[in-house]
Write a structure and sequence with these properties.
Helix content: 55-70%
Largest sheet: none
Shape: globular
Number of strands: 0
Mean pLDDT: 88
Structural class: mainly alpha
Order of helices and strands: HHHHHHHHHHHHHHHH
CATH topology: Hypothetical protein af1432
Low-confidence stretches: 1-12
Strand content: under 5%
CATH class: Mainly Alpha
């Protein structure tokens, strides 16, 4: 999280910070242990879309009916369907049903979640964390776009699933950030905040994604993506792709740093990524990455 600050007449004592951090952790533990954990201010229309998408009997017509009730969400779906990544034959679609059929249900989930977070970011309650929340979301969007093109280029996993997993990879951190507004003392102690975030965001993410009824493969990947970078055991899995996508997104503008980091990242090693292959992928996917980032990140 980017550094945030609050106006106080005096810095809180270490004892106060420790007490506040403890109360925050207790709150997170209670949330995770509860029946259903949800991002605050999450739009009802996004929840309706997610519910219909997990219904095995739901057809395209029913999905389109729900989506069309929110013009902004419908517009986002059309933008994604017509993006360079999804529209490789150059044929634009203007009909929502055709757009839904082109992108598929996993991408519809991705767009619905992106729309929901866009609304959350506009909430008055979160103006004090506007900058770190936008930074966190743009990182998630970047990882989503990179996961999509990396999956397609490597022909590993399903690109739409990879993109969805990438977009929700930061949902635990986002939840912690929004809830931390009730514990302002933590903002004056980045070390304590990041310690809480590092320890709790995988558990929080798993609970939210289970509540959203996302596929177990996605939930596991999001929970394990950070560990995948350092774990040198086991076979290739979706967590490796997310870890590699995060690295590529973060370091794509600094090739000399990326080259050195690749050899230290076990997820990238399992995927067979090299400095040369990554530079080729980034160059060839520039238009796709830009179009997806723009369509998802608004």
């Amino acid at each position: 999280m980017a550094n945030a600050s609050t106006n106080t007449s005096a810095a809180p004592s270490q004892e106060t910070l420790s007490s506040e951090a403890m109360r925050f952790v207790e709150r997170l533990a209670a949330d995770v242990a509860g029946d259903a954990i949800e991002l605050p201010s999450y739009p009802e229309v996004a929840l309706r879309v997610q519910r219909v998408l997990v219904d095995v009997n739901a057809g395209t017509e029913r999905v389109v009916k729900v989506v069309s009730s929110e013009p902004m969400l419908a517009s986002r779906i059309l933008n994604v369907a017509n993006s360079a990544a999804m529209n490789r034959n150059g044929k634009q679609v203007s009909d929502l049903r055709a757009a839904a059929m082109r992108v598929g249900f996993d991408t519809l989930r991705t767009v619905a979640i992106g729309f929901a977070v866009a609304q959350l970011r506009k909430a008055a309650a979160f103006r004090s964390i506007d900058k770190p929340m936008n930074q966190l979301w743009q990182q998630s969007v970047g990882i989503a776009a990179m996961s999509f093109v990396l999956s397609r280029k490597l022909q590993r996993f399903v690109p739409d699933v990879a993109m969805l997993a990438g977009l929700v990879s930061g949902v635990g951190k986002l939840y912690i950030l929004t809830r931390s507004t009730q514990y302002p003392g933590l903002f004056s102690d980045p070390v304590s905040y990041h310690s809480v975030e590092r320890e709790w965001h995988p558990q929080v993410a798993r609970s939210i994604l289970e509540n959203w009824k996302l596929a177990p493969q996605i939930i596991e990947a999001v929970g394990d993506m950070e560990e995948a970078a350092v774990d040198d055991r086991g076979a290739m899995k979706l967590a490796d792709l997310l870890s590699a996508a995060q690295l590529l997104h973060t370091m794509k503008g600094t090739p000399e740093v990326l080259d050195a980091a690749l050899s230290q990242n076990n997820a990238c090693l399992r995927l067979g990524l090299t400095a040369a292959s990554c530079q080729t992928l980034l160059a060839e996917s520039e238009a796709e990455l830009a179009s997806l980032t723009d369509a998802l990140g608004k």
